[in-house]
């Protein structure tokens, strides 16, 4: 996905500011307590690192991937400023062999760059990567976000509905599935009234 990489690189490199801010997402602030202390966590498509750096600051062992080298350069700077270590890896999720049961949790925040087929591949990879008994934390926009226009993709089929997530993660124990509206102030990329959805799902043990 050279085009996707080039597009994100250009967006991140165009400003010294962090497009989505340096503070973690409100979703993560609200739900990080669900994570077992000292978890090994995968943060796919983590962009400029605000969420992976926050998770590392809580004492978790974090691997963060992103397609954009420029985004990860900024993420490394953020980690240095915070005094934490994150294993940053440049990775295109479209050609990645997701690991098997390697993480206590997968945390995916605003990763809505994928069409339905690619999204299914990502969701299945996330489910495969988490250990039995482990968690998936997923946060994104619902189709109502198109009306707000305050962030996220313009393609409605890239967005999440409760029904879509219930179907995609129906083989996991869904602990939280909540669609709601809220005001976000997360850099210039996510700013204003937003239509959001949260999922926390646990892989069955054994």
From TrEMBL:
Segment forming the signal sequence: none
Keywords, ordered alphabetically: Transferase
CDD domains found in the cross-reference section: AdoMet_MTases
Membrane-crossing residue ranges in chain numbering: none
Keyword set includes Nucleotidyltransferase: no
Keyword Transferase appears in the UniProt entry: yes
UniProt protein name: Methyltransferase domain-containing protein
Organism: Brevundimonas mediterranea
